[in-house]
Amino acid sequence: MSLANAAAVLHWLKRGRSDVAVLELSTAMGWPKSSASRLLKDMANLGLLERDETTRRYRAGLLMLELGRAYAAGDPVLEALDAELQDMTQRTGFSTGVSILDGIDIVVLRSRAGTHPLRVVTPPGTRGPAWANSTGRMLMARPSDEEIARRFAIFPPRPRPNAPGTLAELMALVNRARTCGWDESNDESLPGLAGISVAIEDIDRRTALAPYVAFSAAQVEPEERAELVAMLQDMTHRIETRFGREPSAPRLQDMAHG
Amino acid sequence: MSLANAAAVLHWLKRGRSDVAVLELSTAMGWPKSSASRLLKDMANLGLLERDETTRRYRAGLLMLELGRAYAAGDPVLEALDAELQDMTQRTGFSTGVSILDGIDIVVLRSRAGTHPLRVVTPPGTRGPAWANSTGRMLMARPSDEEIARRFAIFPPRPRPNAPGTLAELMALVNRARTCGWDESNDESLPGLAGISVAIEDIDRRTALAPYVAFSAAQVEPEERAELVAMLQDMTHRIETRFGREPSAPRLQDMAHG
DNA sequence: CACCCTGTTCCAAATAATGGAACTTTTTGA
DNA sequence: TCAAAAAGTTCCATTATTTGGAACAGGGTG
């Protein structure tokens, strides 16, 4: 089934290497050399891959870039968030973006780098650990406890010591996010990286979107963080009312946050 | 041949609609309903597409976003350009980016929106007419005249009155770009949009990259444009020397530019 | 120059894709 | 509210395509 094999190649390219050689693929997948060679050649001819003639290796094609751009393009809630976040980055200088939940990961849909010296760059398409992210936990506020428990049946290793390492620890954070309507992370996924996020329901796509602000953990004092929380909550409130929906989350509470 | 059909679906999604329904695809491709239904379902199961359960329509999947991000990621010249352009946007407030040539089109690889009120937003993956773009003409400075003539055997319609409409007009602009080492466009592809760009060889990828600045045509005076040209040329000069190559293009000349 | 490593081509056997028809579900409109 | 049309799905025998071992071709290296 060549389609399944082609999809396997793409998924394999997604996780890890940016490049594939024929023999590499052959051994990794356990396919005969001839099959690997033929499949890669066919995929390149169809525009799914590109071939570097000098190294004879294959990489993702331009088609992927173009299709990736179209992902979620035109979604009204997402576009509205994106526009507001751009203003927020301009006013505060911090990096901002929007993520969604995919299994136990978050995937960045939109982002822009801040103007502060320490730039946090997570371009659209970046995947990260949902359990070690404020965005991930805000998005996990929606699914039921059972659903979350099922996804984390085997709990993944902590990316950093600060991240939750057990289901109980994660659920504590998720519950905090549920009651407060916002969440923050500190040095949990990447060294020195901190973030604050909220969440908003996207009716069209039947998922939730999590707008976020990211900054250096050492860079921002608690008072300023409270300010950022308020900005994010005001933003979602504005957008929810604009799209004729009940503002869902409570606003502006409990800045102590544990 | 299911792989070819799947690729056809992806290319079809790229050009135009963001959505496909079964019957739509069936009629567009001339396939039986059953084949269209099966293929779309299979592609969704393999993660190439996503299905909107309410509308029963299919769209590109997350996989495409993730593979798109990886496109050209890690290419040293591209990353260097991207970093420098980010500074340039911060200093000047204008939108900047990097494009490549693909046939008679340009495709944006990297971009960021400026801070000026009129924002020119062309996210990575955006395709545009190379003949009606300063970036496109800078990139066409490399191929031979014959090669260009072959690509434009049938000359495409002008996107705007200002754009070249014949091969002769295009070649005049390309030759200007060749001698000057930079090019500008004014209201040629999109109403009121102007841009300036240069080009740099990318040895690794065996293509040329065109960094650009984009702005509102009415917004920027000739003196400031000269300034922008100098900034772009200094940037490429810096990068060329950093990567141990002869600076190729002449610098800082003929600002009148026709 | 010969060897090893990687990639390509070939062809018969085996497997998976194809498309018409029947069937189910959703939408339309009277 | 209900019937008819439209859109989508499933089924299955036929057909065509994928598959993989083996032989072949480059190309770099000692």
Keywords:
258 residues, Arc Repressor Mutant, subunit A, 2 domains, seven-stranded antiparallel beta sheet, two-stranded antiparallel ribbon, 9 helices
In words, what does this structure look like?
Two copies of one chain form a homodimer. Chain A has nine helices and nine strands. With 258 residues, chain A is α+β, with helices and mostly antiparallel strands. Chain A folds into two domains: 2-66, Winged helix-like DNA-binding domain superfamily/Winged helix DNA-binding domain (Arc Repressor Mutant, subunit A, Orthogonal Bundle), CATH 1.10.10; 72-242, Beta-Lactamase (2-Layer Sandwich), CATH 3.30.450. In chain A, the strands form two sheets. In chain A, strands 3, 4, 5, 6, 7, 8 and 9 form a seven-stranded antiparallel sheet that branches. The first copy, chain A, has a two-stranded antiparallel ribbon with strand order 1-2. In chain A, a hairpin with a 2-residue loop joins β3 (95-102) and β4 (105-112). Chain A is globular, with a radius of gyration of 21 Å. The N and C termini of chain A lie far apart (53 Å). The model of chain A is unreliable at 249-256 (pLDDT under 50). Chain A binds a DNA duplex (30 and 30 nucleotides) through residues 1-3, 5, 21-23, 31-38, 41, 56.
**CATH topology label of the largest domain in chain A:** Beta-Lactamase
Number of helices of chain A: 9
The CATH superfamily label of the largest domain in chain A reads GAF domain
Shape estimate of chain A: globular
Oligomer: homodimer
Give the amount of beta strand of chain A, in percent: 15-25%
- Major sheet description of chain A: 7 strands, antiparallel
Order of helices and strands of chain A: HHHEEHHEEEHHHEEEEH
Round the mean pLDDT of chain A to the nearest integer and report it: 91
